[in-house]
């Protein structure tokens, strides 16, 4: 061996050896290994990484002897892996802050669904229908944890994220990333749909005054040993991690405050609710000497609290406990502008306000001036001066806005500048550096002033004479005298403070901000013209929240003129946003301007805008009906809807949602004859909502005769069965091995189940809803296969009584859909006897007897005029009244 090789061996031998990372399968072989691993100060892999590994392995598919991919087997190995993942989460004490940082939304969703499963949460029952007070402690706690995560995830997803661009070596990961993004978006869509239910569950938990228990490693071991008793065993005080009611309420109040604060953008009253929850959180925190089980960001809580007080007008300027932001906000809300300027001057010494806040306040006042508010010019000038002096003392570059102010100021403005300079510099305590920076500022002030008499005001001021040596003063005055002699006194008058063009980069930023906020079509066009005169770039990308439907994006981006392209895109994006917040007046203005613009050069875009304006009018009318209006749609609107549905497609981008809303509109106004006979077949084939609407209209039209309606009913039945079916999908690694399997909705359905539910919830015509309820009741009865307890509904005879492929049906999806459908129908008409009986039967067959009794009594009250008449026998059947019926179970 050479000397060099020997040295290398010696060096490598002297390095401390890193212990190998523990592999996931080792935890299957040694029951004690996981607990010992988690007790290490720096475990490798870390706990959240273990959760990912365990769940990833448990979700792997199996391959049978025929080399066919099968769903993950329900065997001891996979059950143990899921249990290990839960035990890691239990070690982390179910701290959602830690879990959310380390796990993606799909993985955390899988973990918490597994927690619901092992905690014996009744499957197929919506959490909002559960009575938490009657559930075992760990079951109730699992429901609470899941719904806390649901609303927290909605809040976190609303925060902007920086999009990372993959490098060349990462391009092969794009498909995986895209799949995970789609899965995340699907989960978020479901969570947002159920947000109101999650809020109700958590609000209900605040009424529980008992202590709670959450699964620990011990209780999960008990669960593995005896699944039938482990969950109940945690009801005792000796099992599970005890969480006091106050600790849980503190955490729930904080999470509810977050979701209500997020909803405040579209509902001002939500800020009031958020403030109340954050107030409760603060009060509960004061009770704890040591918060072992409360995990929240107290700095964020303080920020939320102050923001809520500012937004709800609950701030008192005299409150000494207010932070600087709260005090400034309170002064603005109370229009105490003199005190606001004083606060800015004092802050030049104390430096307690962040500079970005001061700049933000100035921008807010400038925006108000540009919007036409009067009497704020002087406030803008003073705030601009205060910020300039602050910048000077901190060595920052003076703003363009301040330089604009110096072009032609009045004497009182210069006097105010000198006053601010004097009060911002404590001559006895200020450092030499601060004094030098103030001298530089005063010199800049003199050099920027064009009027000699204003320069004299500065040079004669006491602060100037104290800070500058006599020799420096003489040199500066001489320079000013020479400069004034060369000034062209006949020069064109300088423009006003707001008209002077700033540096391009500054002006672009300000104009882009105005562009984001503006809803006036003419002003938007004017701003874009100004922006395009300064820079050639796509200004439709200024705000990543501006979105136009993918169906239209290519048509718009193919517009050759960049200004027109930006204008069309932004007008449409802003109009679509206004529809979502039900600001229909602004939408009409924006869409009308866009229609006028595109009519000049693009027949295709003209038709697109006419379609969008039709959708606007349909939504506006349906919103009015939902808010209590009973006015029928004007004939012109019905005619336009018919025109859309009869439209022949010639290379025209169409949004399915336009057809969806038009179909729902026609069904709601009982235009069944039209939908059945006059809609072009090409449109039926291309738009699933029109297909669905035609089948519903045909079925309703032929009711109540079961023989005549069975043909169209069978077609509708087959379409719905496909929507509620599932299929198994998998992917393979580069070596050909199967690495992942997922159970997805069948691609054979004409649309996804979530979109089908969304469409149903746009319907309000009783016969259409009764038909759908009847279909799903029959569907549910077949997949449930219970001949003893039946759910009743109208028109059951028109539907098939068997299913060809029961294994392909998502049974839980059918159960959830029928319950969701009936619940929605009862929100429209809580006194519909048939729907009440169906709802009661559903609760009865799922062993929720208390809820069943409630709806049976309500149905009886409706049909008997509050029991002043006899209840019809078809309402209180033997199933209800006989000794084994619901009245017996609730006696």
Automatic annotation (TrEMBL):
GO terms for biological process: snRNA 3'-end processing. PANTHER family: INTEGRATOR COMPLEX SUBUNIT 8. Keywords: Chromosome, Nucleus. It comes from Oncorhynchus tshawytscha (Chinook salmon). Residues 505-880 form the INTS8 TPR repeats domain. GO terms for cellular component: chromosome; integrator complex. The keyword Nucleus applies. This is INTS8 TPR repeats domain-containing protein. It comes from the Eukaryota. The keyword Nucleus applies.
């Amino acid at each position: 061996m050479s000397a060099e090789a020997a040295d290398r061996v010696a060096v490598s031998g002297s390095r401390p050896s890193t212990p190998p990372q523990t592999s996931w399968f080792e935890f299957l072989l040694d029951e004690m290994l996981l607990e010992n691993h988690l007790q290490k100060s720096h475990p490798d892999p870390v706990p959240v990484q273990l959760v990912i590994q365990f769940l990833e392995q448990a979700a792997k598919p199996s391959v049978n002897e025929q080399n066919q991919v099968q769903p993950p087997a329900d065997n001891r190995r996979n059950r143990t892996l899921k249990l290990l993942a839960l035990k890691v989460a239990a070690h982390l004490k179910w701290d959602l802050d830690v879990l959310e940082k380390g796990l993606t939304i799909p993985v955390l969703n899988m973990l918490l669904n597994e927690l619901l499963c092992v905690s014996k949460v009744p499957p197929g029952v919506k959490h909002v229908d559960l009575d938490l007070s009657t559930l075992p402690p760990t079951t109730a706690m699992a429901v609470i944890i899941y719904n806390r995560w649901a609303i927290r995830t909605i809040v976190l997803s609303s925060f902007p994220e920086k999009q990372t661009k993959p490098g060349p070596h990462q391009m092969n990961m794009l498909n995986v990333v895209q799949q995970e993004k789609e899965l995340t978006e699907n989960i978020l869509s479901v969570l947002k749909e159920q947000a109101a239910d999650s809020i109700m569950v958590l609000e209900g938990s605040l009424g529980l005054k008992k202590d709670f228990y959450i699964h620990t490693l011990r209780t999960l071991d008990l669960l593995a040993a005896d699944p039938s008793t482990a969950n109940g065993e945690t009801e005792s005080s000796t099992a599970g991690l005890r969480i006091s009611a106050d600790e849980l309420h503190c955490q729930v109040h904080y999470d509810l405050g977050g979701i209500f604060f997020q909803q405040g953008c579209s509902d001002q009253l939500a800020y009031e609710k958020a403030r109340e929850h954050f107030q409760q959180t603060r009060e509960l925190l004061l009770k704890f000497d040591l918060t072992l089980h409360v995990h929240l960001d107290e700095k964020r809580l303080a920020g939320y609290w102050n923001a809520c007080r500012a937004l709800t007008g609950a701030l008192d300027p005299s409150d000494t406990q207010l932070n600087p932001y709260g005090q400034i906000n309170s002064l603005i809300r109370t229009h105490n502008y003199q005190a606001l300027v004083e606060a800015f001057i004092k802050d030049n010494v104390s430096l307690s306000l962040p500079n970005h806040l001061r700049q933000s306040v100035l921008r807010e006042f400038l925006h108000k001036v540009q919007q036409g508010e009067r009497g704020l010019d002087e406030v803008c000038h003073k705030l601009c001066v205060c910020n300039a002096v602050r910048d000077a003392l901190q060595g920052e570059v003076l703003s363009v806005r301040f330089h604009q102010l110096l072009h032609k100021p009045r004497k009182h403005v210069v006097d105010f500048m000198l006053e601010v300079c004097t009060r911002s510099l404590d001559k006895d305590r200020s450092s030499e550096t601060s004094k030098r920076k103030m001298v530089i500022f005063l010199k800049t002030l003199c050099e920027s002033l064009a009027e000699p008499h204003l320069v004299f005001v500065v040079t004669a001021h006491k602060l100037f004479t104290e800070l500058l040596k006599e020799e420096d003063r003489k040199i500066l005055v001489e320079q000013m005298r020479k400069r004034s002699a060369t000034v062209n006194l006949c020069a064109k008058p300088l423009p006003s403070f707001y008209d002077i063009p700033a540096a391009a980069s500054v002006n672009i930023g300000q104009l882009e901000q105005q562009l984001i906020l503006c809803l006036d079509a003419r002003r938007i066009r004017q701003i874009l013209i100004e922006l395009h005169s300064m820079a050639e770039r796509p200004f439709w990308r200024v705000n990543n929240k501006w979105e136009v439907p993918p169906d239209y994006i290519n048509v718009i981006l193919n517009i050759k003129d960049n200004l027109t392209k930006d204008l069309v895109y932004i007008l449409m994006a802003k109009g679509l946003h206004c529809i979502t917040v039900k600001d229909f007046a602004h939408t009409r203005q924006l869409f009308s301007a866009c229609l006028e613009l595109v009519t000049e050069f693009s027949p295709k875009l003209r038709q697109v805008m006419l379609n969008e304006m039709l959708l606007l009018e349909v939504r506006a009318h349906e919103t009015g009906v939902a808010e209590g209006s009973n006015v029928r749609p004007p004939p012109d609107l019905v005619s336009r809807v018919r025109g859309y549905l009869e439209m022949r497609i010639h290379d025209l981008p169409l949004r399915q949602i336009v057809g969806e809303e038009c179909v729902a509109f026609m069904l709601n106004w009982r235009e069944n004859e039209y939908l059945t006979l006059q809609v072009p077949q090409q449109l039926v084939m291309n738009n699933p909502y029109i297909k669905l609407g035609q089948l519903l209209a045909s079925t309703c039209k032929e009711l109540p005769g079961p023989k005549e309606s069975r043909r169209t009913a069978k077609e509708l039945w087959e379409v719905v069965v496909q929507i509620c079916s599932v299929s198994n999908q998998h992917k393979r690694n580069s070596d050909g091995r199967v690495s992942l399997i997922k159970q997805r909705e069948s691609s054979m359905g004409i649309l996804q189940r979530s979109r089908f539910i969304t469409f149903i919830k746009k319907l309000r015509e009783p016969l259409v809803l009764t038909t759908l309820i009847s279909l799903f009741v029959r569907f549910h009865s077949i997949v449930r296969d219970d001949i003893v307890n039946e759910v009743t509904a109208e028109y059951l005879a028109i539907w098939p009584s068997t299913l060809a492929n029961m294994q392909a049906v998502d049974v839980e999806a059918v159960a959830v859909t029928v319950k969701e459908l009936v619940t929605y129908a009862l929100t429209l008409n809580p006194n519909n006897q048939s729907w009440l009986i169906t709802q009661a039967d559903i609760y009865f067959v799922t062993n929720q007897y208390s809820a069943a009794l409630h709806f049976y009594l309500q149905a009886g009250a409706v049909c008997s005029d509050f029991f002043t008449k006899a209840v019809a026998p078809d309402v209180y059947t033997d199933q209800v009244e006989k000794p084994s019926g619901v009245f017996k179970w609730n006696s």
